[in-house]
Structures are given as structure tokens and as C-alpha cells.
Design brief:
Strand content: 5-15%
Number of strands: 8
Mean pLDDT: 91
Shape: globular
Radius of gyration: 18 Å
Helix content: 40-55%
Structural class: alpha/beta
Strand order of the largest sheet: 1-2-4-3-5-6-7-8
Low-confidence stretches: 1-25, 27-31
Largest sheet: 8 strands, mixed
Amino acid sequence: MTMHVRVRTLAALTGAALLAAITQGFAQSAAQAPKYKPISVKTPDGLTISAQEWGNPNGPEIVLIHGFGQSHLSWIRQVNSDLAREFRIITYDLRGHGYSDKPLEKAPYHDNKAWGDEVKALIDAAGLKRPVLVGWSYAGRVISDYVTTHGADKIAGLNFVGASIKAFPEFAGDNLKNAPGMMSDDLATNIAATRAFVRGCFEKQPTAEDFEIMLSFNMMVPPKVRANLFGRPLDATEVMSRLNIPVLVTHGERDGNAKLGTAQYTAKTIPGAKLSVYEGIGHAPFYEDAARFNTELAALVRSANRTN
């Protein structure tokens, strides 16, 4: 048994408790819990990616891509909302996260093409035609990898959420100081840093129940995977400056991970991009102000489908 298979097995056992969380629907009763169709994705470099289909199977398509240390459960306030009545929504766990494979080697996390190929494999496995890609935080890198590797011809639009297309050290938020502790093999150190990091992702804090679930799926990411996710260069300025699809840049004014300047740069670089700043909101606008976020995302998807 390979190392990454052993880690995946352990994560599956650890994650068994999260199945109860899914049925609770982030503090929803079992009767109200959203339903999804599982999708198994195989990447060109041999990883199995766990994905989920929600909502209206005949609606315009949305792919929600989570950030560093998170999981598909991050999007519960989207898949369990009016968005699901109108749109076909696809979520998934990035490599190294959730129920997806978790190789411990550095290479699978530092190959930009592999990240782009992962998104394409998801689109192909789900049979998507022209989805809008929504990328939170680290997923700005993932979207940049996809567009750089495969182009934008098969996507209808983009929504960057607290995300970057270029790494600016001066725009890094104070919450990232917790990252080194999250890479520690000392469990107490790791838990303390992860707790602080999750808290730091929100200006408006999650409920106690939601925080427990968020901490649980953050802890499913092995320390070595967290370490391997760092140190990858990012500058997609050139490719993004040539986009001709609808783009929304969503950013919390109180974002503790990425300062507003990074969103302003993205909106300035991409032709026609719209910048939406959430006053008094942190790194997770889709959770902290889900009503506004869902309304703006729905408008983007409708517009993108009219345009294309």
C-alpha cells in the first residue's frame, strides 16, 4: 500500500464523523439536509478526486472551488440555498483535501498543469458544457492554472472570491502567520494554529456548530500537504489580461488573508471585470453574507449564459 493510499484511508476513517455533519447540513435538520449526487474524478496524474453534484440538473452550471485547508462543505450556504433551485452546482475536494487523494510528495502540488488538469477532469467527468468557475482564496491559483493550461473557451465566466491572480507579499494578510503552525507534526501545535486560522478567515464568526465542522475538515489535511501547498509561484497577469468572459471579483473589506489590493489588481487586470467589496466582511463573503453573495453569483451566471 502506497503512502498516499494509507493517508487517504486514515483520512476516510477520520472523516467518517463528517458524514453526520453532512446529514445535518451545517446545523440544518436531517429533513432539510441538501442532497447531492457523488461524482468520482480521476486526474491524468492518477489521483481520485471526490466531487458532488447539487441542485437543478438542467440549470446553468456552477463549479465551486474551495480554498487552502477547506472542503466542499465550505459551500453549504450555496448548495443549500435558492441557487440550487435554478443552477446545477458542482463542488469537489481539491487534491490533498477532504475525501480526495492525499499524496505526501511535493510534486503533485507544485505542478501547475496538474492543477489545471484536475479542473478539466472534473468538468469532463461531470459532463459540464460551459460552467462558471467560482474560486475561493487558494482556488484563485487553481483557476489561473486551468485557464493557463486549457484556455477559457469552455467556461462561461469566473468569480474570484478573496482570491489572487498574482502573489503580492505586501497584500498578504495577518492571518497567514498561523500557516507555519498548521504544518507542524506536533498535534497540539497544529490544532491550535488551525483553530486560529479558521477563526481568522471570518470577520463575522461562524456558529459554534459550523466552526466545529470547519475545524474538522481543516484537520483532514495532513501537515505535509499543507506545507506542499506553499511556495508555488503565481503570476497569471498575462493570460488573465486577455480574457473576454464575464468576471466578478468578490472581496471582503476586512479580509485577514488577502488585503483588498489584490482584488483591485485582479479587477484592473481582467477586461470588464467587476469588483464587489463587502464592507465589514472577512475572507469568507459567501458564508458571512450569503444572501448578497448568492444574489451576485446568480446574476453573474445568468449574464454569462446570455453572453455566451
